[in-house]
Amino acid sequence: MLNTVEILDQLANRRKNFSLGRDLYCDEGVFHADLENLWYREWLFAIPSCDIPKTGNHATLQIGEYPVVIVRGADGQIRAFHNVCRHRGQRLCPKQNGSSAKLVCPYHQWTYDLDGKLLFARDMGPDFDPSQFSLKPVHCRTEGGMVFICLADNPPDFEGLGTYLRDYVGASDLANAKVAFTSTIVEKGNWKLVIENNRECYHCGGSHPSLCRTYSDNPLMTVMEGPNAASPEILSHWDRCDKAGLPARFVNEPGMQWRFARVPLLNNAESFTMSTKAAVNRRMGTIPWNDAGSLMFYHFPSSWNHFLPDHAIVFRLLPISPTETEVTSKWLVHKDAVEGVDYDLQKLTEVWLATNDEDRRVVEENQKGILSPAYEPGPYSPSQEEGVIHFVDWYVRQMMDRLSPRPAMAAE
Q1: Structural domain for 77, as ranges
Q2: Of 59, 84, 159, 275, whose CB count within 10 A is highest?
Q3: Residue 5: inside a domain
């Protein structure tokens, strides 16, 4: 298991624009360093707000060692707490989703209000002060109908991302959507391999026949930087969106942690379906046409997303172990859309269910190869894998900055 000095050495000596060294994808010490320095310190996408639409609805997730519960309060506000009873540490909410007027510990029935205040604790004696035993809060922000949480005591700035979530994702009006279907799978691969696979379509032609009916594997259609960026099709699509007041143009965080861009689908396709037509009869939000393409939004380290005129698909990944990653996908539709009337669930989900399973297989085979002592880092394609390069560079910068020792303060 690598220690901090050894991890820093591997990061500092990695070859630029090549894949990472074997230990950075497999080692237990690296995995725990990733958790401590990224997953416990960055803003993470948790759920769409429509996943908990009513008072008392709650959702849970596990981030490394931290169980978290996200709750909609009586005032409509969404809050997050450590999913740990203040009595003896029992998980309050063991299921992925639930609903209750209060949060009641299943062990000794300590009872909490939806804002985290302790309301009831039986037989604790006259000196017991319930105000000292509220649930521990987790930083929580909801913008554009997407709920982000951060475990850090002092989270990074959220305002820049929040502004673009309101502008770009806001057009889909997720507050007036509902979850039509949820899929959770475990990929037997390191979380970084899951993201790397997502950040390129070099593999799409050979791996994703259903997706490639509507989604171009041409990097000029999805890569927005460099000398060959912004193809005529992209520019024409953006001009059309501009005239309709629909945010579409490429925007990224300077360090490449997140990006938004709306891109057209192939041959005026309307949605990610086998027929290429819309899967849902009701459009979402203020999107004016069926062929408005996909708003693509990614955020490292936890999410990538597609927002289409008829539905949205939000993806969340969570690390389980050095070689296991949970991937949750949620299909969102207009809240008034009726299954069997406005959409067929199989037609809505079949393309990305297949794509997720295809990605699972390639990630797992990638991990098996990297576990071999014969593995050594290979070069990324500068034209096809620019997105992977951006992610790996971001990862290395963040880890080196946070693992490097701070200079001692000079004596006065």
Answers
A1: 44-150
A2: 59
A3: no
Query: What pLDDT, on the 0 to 100 scale, is given for residue 217?
Result: 86
Q: Domain count of the chain?
A: 2
Looking at the structure, tell me whether residues 181 and 308 fall in a common domain: yes
Say if residue 134 is in the same domain as residue 177: no
Q: Are residues 178 and 302 in the same domain?
A: yes
Q: What is the DSSP string of 16-29?
A: TTBPPPHHHHH-HH
- In this structure, the answer to whether residues 208 and 296 fall within a common structural domain is yes
CA 279 – CA 265 distance, rounded (Å)? 14
Whole-number pLDDT of residue 231: 80
CATH number at residue 330: 3.90.380.10
In a domain, 377, yes or no: no
At 405 the pLDDT is 86
**Cβ neighbours for 283, distance < 8 A, ≥ 6 positions apart:** 290, 309, 310, 334
Distance CA 212, CA 226 (A): 24
Residue 126 lies in a domain: yes
What CATH number has the domain bearing residue 99? 2.102.10.10
Task: Tell whether pTM > 0.85.
Answer: yes
Query: Scanning the structure block, which residue is given the tokens 């938004």?
Result: 260
| Residue at 270: amino acid letter | E
Task: Give the pLDDT of residue 223.
Answer: 56
Residues 176 and 146 in one domain: no
Phi and psi at 26, nearest 5°, equal: -130, -25
157/75 Cα distance (integer angstroms): 25
Q: What is the pLDDT of residue 60?
A: 99
Phi-psi region at 239: left, alpha or beta (left = phi > 0; alpha = psi -120 to 50) = alpha
One-letter amino acid of 351: V
Residues of the chain with pLDDT under 50: 227-228, 410-412
Question: Does 178 lie in the same domain as 145?
Answer: no
The conformation of residue 408, written as its DSSP 8-state character, comes to P
Contact (Cβ atoms closer than 8 angstroms) between residue 355 and residue 213: no
**8 A C-beta contact, residue 297 and residue 181:** no
Residue 338's pLDDT is what?
98
Is the residue at 32 inside a domain?
Answer: no
In this prediction, residue 284 carries a pLDDT of: 97
- Cβ contacts of 57 within 8 Å, gap of 6 or more: 51, 71, 72, 97, 98, 99
In Å, how far are 159, 250, 293, 327, 330 from 253, measured between CA atoms? 12, 10, 22, 24, 25
